[in-house]
User: Fold Sodefrin-like factor from Meganyctiphanes norvegica.
Amino acid sequence: GQLSSDVVLVQLSCAVVLVQLSRAVVMVQLSSMIKQIIIQLICVAVLSGIQVTNALTCYHCTDNPGEGSGRPYVADCGRFDYQGASTEQGDDTTCYIAITNDGFVQRGRSESPIFYQGGCQYGTSFTGCFCKGGLCNTHSFCAHCGYPRPTPTTTEQTTSTTDPTTLTPVSTEPPTPSNPTLRCYTCVDCPEVEDSTHVIEGDFLTCVSTIFLNSAEVIRSGSHEDQPDECIHHAETLSCYCSSDLCNDYTLEF
Assistant:
């Protein structure tokens, strides 16, 4: 009888030990699963952070109401310190500002990797400058790129003397006309021209002053458009052209 009681006690003790071991194994498994879940959550958070970091946000707008490129028209986009709500985001390398020859401003993202911080691009109708960093395409009018176009370089004319005894043949070919340059006032949000107003010189055909009818903001620049001396009315702007040096100094009113 005593032996049977001892056997029962041993069996109960073994059962208790097995139950405790089972619980310990379950806890270890749960701890391992929890660790895996935590690691996965951390990886997801890190990857999400990397994706957000790679996305570049730039100001995206134009102050040209007739551009028709799909870029949002914002009257204040031409302000030097534009910080409006019109932006776009993407996996691009740079933001840009483009100044057209007739004085309009474009802002956006550049998908091309060839442009870099401080880089310039010269198109037939615009000058562009590029920057790296979120919302960096403001507080600039591409001055370091020669806004709105780089000033043409001129070569100094040298004079030479000819020995009086030497006969110089007379050319029958008509002289080749040189490309004339035109000086124009260039500024943004300048209702009047002052002594400090910037002057740009280039192979422009006309000077132009544009007033936005809804804000009375005036932009002055040089233009490669061959226009008569007249004013042209668009939906929201009035552009006046002239063809002599520094002629776009008049005050525009409406």
